[in-house]
Design a protein that fits this description.
alpha+beta; two-stranded antiparallel ribbon; 1 helix; about 30% helix; binds zinc ion
């Protein structure tokens, strides 16, 4: 397994569905709700999805 450095900055406020980055997506503690498309999920889960997506990007997948 290659080790990939992923910048965690903004992963917690980026919508994994539409890519919208806003601090208002994180108005509720521990919960993510996109102000643009309405996608919502557990904040930790969203962070993990975004980090995984960034890792795939870094691999060129
Ligand atoms: Zn969205």
């Amino acid at each position: 397994m290659p080790v990939i450095y992923v910048d965690p900055k903004e992963t917690s406020k980026t919508c994994p569905k539409c890519g919208n980055v806003s601090r208002y997506n994180r108005k509720i503690q521990g919960w993510f709700k996109c102000v643009k498309c309405g996608y919502q999920s557990d904040a930790d889960r969203v962070g993990a999805i975004n980090i995984a997506a960034k890792a795939l990007d870094a691999l060129g997948a």
